[in-house]
Amino acid sequence: xxxxxxxxxxxxLKQTLGYKFAAQERNLRTFASFAEERGDCYLRKKTxxxxxxxxxxxxxxxxxxxxxRAFAISMHAEDDRHEIPPSDTFGRALKRxxxxxxxxxxxxxxxxxxxxxxxxxxSITPYTHRCIIGLLAATGMRVSEAVALQMSDITADGLVxxxxxxxxxRLIPIHATTREALKHYLSVRRLIGGPSGHxxxxxxxxxxxxxxxxRAFLKLARKTGLRxxxxxxGPRLHDLRHSFAAxxxxxxxxxxxxVDRHMLALSTYLGxxxxxxxxxxxxxxxxxxxxxxxxxxxxxxxxxxx
Length: 306
Prior knowledge:
- This protein is mostly helical.
- It is 57% helix and 3% strand.
- It is built from 13 helices and three strands, in the order αααααααβββαααααα.
């Protein structure tokens, strides 16, 4: 097989597993053409690094190398004539995560109350924003999943999320209070929401998008005093998901078996592709860190007493 054919196979495998893999696919196809122009039948360190170095920035070179190196590792496992380049030729990229703002129940209630007064008044729009924000807070759903919900996705067992971030569908069980809130929203929607099959619609009759809901949330956060002006730190829409995950973990017993089970269940509920994505929430709240510290200290004291 040629390197171009190997790339085709690798990309298909990744996308079958649920990854979008769009940017990586473009890079790999460009690299494959570059390598075959040089007559390479197998992946060569020199060719990979030469291609990666042609990026317009050092960050671009790091990203190029990371993508092709992962491909090289996979190919080397099948045939050791493929070479794996070093990982740090262009330095290490530091991925900075935004510090999450964990919203309390009282703060969320203030935002939901303020949402009642969003314009245009006497339309479905304020009801829609209020219900979406409440649903995100109660379930930890991604906003993209919420705005894509159809009327038919409300079932007796919960909400059906179809082909979300990683092209996987899942069922989200919901609490009785959440179901009651959706029932109230639907009663209003039937009167003034129009015929669309989407669960959430605006006064235009069209469903909101991610940006629209995010702008509404920022407006509400400022109105309730939780956020300052543009550029100042404060809660973002995605922090509702952080808050849900962190509060869920805070309620978990300290027993290791319970923690393992809880993490796996939470990861599935949130629709994470990797359990490591869920473990990051352990860093999101001082309460969780305090529990970890206390458990570590207790274990240390136990060893000292033996």
